[in-house]
Structures are given as structure tokens and as C-alpha cells.
Amino acid sequence: MRRLAPLLLVLLAGCGSMAEAQLPDPAGPPSANVAEGAPKLATCRDQLATQWLADKAQLAVLCGRERTVDVYDVASGKRVGSTGAGIGPTDLVSDGKDAMYVVDSEGDALLVYRRSPFQLIRRVHIIGGPYAIAFDRERWGLDITLSDKTVVHYKAGWRPVLERTR
Predict the structure, then answer these.
(1) Is the pLDDT at 72 greater than 90, yes or no?
(2) Neighbour tally for 84: CB within 10 Å
(3) Is 91 within 8 Å of 60 (Cβ atoms)?
(4) Distance between CA atoms of 150 and 165, rounded to whole angstroms?
(5) How far apart are CA 59 and CA 162, in angstroms?
(6) For residue range 75-113, what is the model confidence (pLDDT) as tens digits?
(7) Which residues of 154-164 are buried (b: 16+ CB within 10 A; e: fewer)?
(8) Among 20, 87, 99, which residue's Cα sits nearest to residue 54?
(9) How many Cβ atoms from other residues are within 10 Å of residue 83's Cβ?
(10) Over residues 149-166, mean pLDDT
């Protein structure tokens, strides 16, 4: 009987599955990248960031718990695309036209998306736990903040390239 006692305890404990409402919060701090004047189109519970695309004809939405990037047509309000956003997305920026960039904090990566056709086109490994991103229109670049508060600057485009560290 002594050998059965630990087995019974395991059987009573269950497998550890949780309902969606009980899942942990998305990785990292909430983003401040919310498109000014953006309508609430997404159905996800935790929009981490929203950004305009195609000169405000479309809206990109980063959903943290679902770990997706969704693109909506603003005129119709319909979702026109959706794809994965890594294993721990925390922030999203856009060039306002055709490119989107997602910081995947858990995956130590910068994810690059093309608007048309909507797809993930590149994954750039970033050492140091990236968690926030800002688009620098003047220098056409990406300022990515790492977990130790270091800011790295990447040249924007379909193939982001590291330019410097601050």
C-alpha cells in the first residue's frame, strides 16, 4: 500500500490544464504603442499594441494572450489576416505603410511582417531580452529596448540590420 500512496496523489492532482481565463498574462509589460484614433476592431481580450497600415486603411493589432498579429480593414471592420506573433510578444510598430515589426520577448527576436500579402517574412535574433520597440521615421529605423534598459538601433526594412547600441 505504501507504493500506491504517491501514485494516488498524482492521480488526484490532475494534469495541470487550465481554462483560458486562468492562463498567465502575456510576457512583459503592457505596450504604449496604441495608434491614435484607432477604432476597437479586434476581438482579443488583451490588445498589447495597435498600429496603422496602408495610410490608415488598415489596422494591425497585437494580441498578447493569443500571441497573434491581426490585420483589419478599417472601412469594413473585418479581419483580413492573422498569423502567429512568436512565443512571448510584447510590442508592435509599423512604418505606416507595408511593414510591421513585433518584439518577441520570450523568443529573443524581432519578427518582420509584410502587409501585402500579409505574412511573417523574417525573424531576427536579438540577444538581451527585447521588450519594447519604437519606430524612428526620421532615420527610418527601429529603437529596441532590451531588458537591461540598453537601446539598440536597427535600420528598418525587410532585412533589419543592427546599426548601434546606446
Answers:
(1) yes
(2) 14
(3) no
(4) 7
(5) 27
(6) 999 999 999 999 999 999 998 888 999 999 999 999 999
(7) bebeeebeeee
(8) 99
(9) 13
(10) 89
Ranges assigned E (strand) in 38-108:
47-53, 58-63, 68-73, 79-84, 89-94, 99-104
Q: Rounded to an integer, what distance in angstroms lies between the CA atom of residue 132 and that of residue 69? A: 16
**Cα dihedral 74/76/80/85 (nearest 10):** 40
- What per-residue confidence (pLDDT) applies to 166? 66
**DSSP structure class, residue 8:** H
Go through the chain and tell me how many residues it has: 166
- Partners of 102 in the beta sheet? 92, 111
Partners of residue 152 on adjacent β-strands: 144, 165
Let me know: does 28 contact 46? Beta carbons within 8 Å.
Answer: no
